[in-house]
Amino acid sequence: LSFFFFKQKTAYEMLRSLVGSEMCIRDRYNLEEAENRYERRWMEKENRRVKAKYIKQEKQRLAKLFQMAYDNDPRIQAWKKAEEEEKLKAKLEKQRQKEQRIREEHEKKRKIEEEKQLKIQSCLLYTSDAADDLLCVDLGGRRIIKKK
């Protein structure tokens, strides 16, 4: 089956499928035709520039091919979907915890306010012996006796 696949490819497609050192890129200039070393160096430089350009294009083509394969792979799509759902669940859980924490803080503040209101509204209780005499008041087990 693979033989049939390769047989259907054209020579141009096969050349483009090679990468790196296997890539068959013809030099633009033949170094043997140079008249002097300066011209040969310039030709070498131009040949390297052309090769670098083709190699860059080939890498971009392969990157595009890999990205297309990656984007269309059903396993990758399922994995991405599961990852998004997991992130969404984590986000919702974090938001729920934040709301719970805020509710707890409000409840604490409300209880503290209620306690303050109770302290303000509560009156002093007089003990039975101090209740007869308004000059003596029992505050937490201590007697305060006011002199006339």
Which sequence of SSEs, written as H and E, runs from N to C? HHHHHEE
Helix/strand-derived category reads: mainly alpha
Apparent shape:
elongated
Question: Low-confidence stretches at least 5 residues in length (pLDDT < 50)?
Answer: 1-15
Strand content: 5-15%
Strand arrangement in the largest pleated sheet: 1-2
Distance between the termini: 119 Å
Main beta-sheet annotation: 2 strands, antiparallel
Average residue-wise pLDDT: 76
Number of helical segments with 4 or more residues: 5
How many DSSP E strands?
2
Helix share, percent: 55-70%
Radius of gyration: 44 Å
Task: Describe it.
The protein has five helices and two strands; from the N terminus they run αααααββ. It starts with a helix and ends with a strand. With 148 residues, the chain is mainly α. The chain is elongated and about 110 Å long. The model is unreliable at 1-15 (pLDDT under 50). Strands 1-2 form a two-stranded antiparallel sheet.
Quickly list its features.
148 residues, mainly alpha, disordered N terminus
Task: Give a short synopsis of this structure.
The protein is mainly alpha-helical. It contains five helices and two strands. The chain has helices at 2-8, 11-17, 37-72, 74-121, 128-132; strands at 136-139, 142-145.
Task: Record the SSE blueprint.
Blueprint: H1 2-8, H2 11-17, H3 37-72, H4 74-121, H5 128-132, E1 136-139, E2 142-145
Antiparallel strand pairs: 1-2
